[in-house]
Amino acid sequence: MKPAVILxxxxxxxxxxxxxxxxxxxxxxxxxxxxxxxxxxxxxxxAGHLHGQVKSRAFSRYLLYGSVxxxxxxxxxxxxxxxxxxxxHRSCIYLDWSTSGESRCLIYSQPFWKKLACGRYPENRRDIxxxxxxxxxxxxxxxxxxxxxxx
Length: 151
Hints:
This protein has about 150 residues and is α+β, with helices and mostly antiparallel strands. It has helices spanning about 5-15, 20-30, 35, 40-55, 60-65, 110-115, 125-130; strands at about 75-80, 95, 105, 135-140. It has two domains: about 5-65, no CATH class; about 75-140, no CATH class. It is built from seven helices and four strands, in the order αααααβββααβ.
């Protein structure tokens, strides 16, 4: 078993122990007391969020960021279509949907969001493939060009 997979499961197990406190943590991060008012719903969403983190290897990808270099320099191109796939396969506790069906992040651009892998998405072809993202693609970077662009 790869060390990254072990790391993901160990951290998921630890986070699972904290599920009873998820409404307080989510409320503090989002600055939104509704997470506490709807604590049972929040706890259920937090469990789904945790499952999404394991499925997308969120812990190891975040903690090992920069230690795994892409095999070839690549440039990420495209524009977000708000499908929600990159939000832990549509299971992020902070994912919400507009009336027109577009995804939106309830903590987008907050300092906490910028520290997460969300703030760096998509970094490369692996990210795009992992979430089956219809919005972005990667192409070989031209020599001297930046390796990725901001979405």
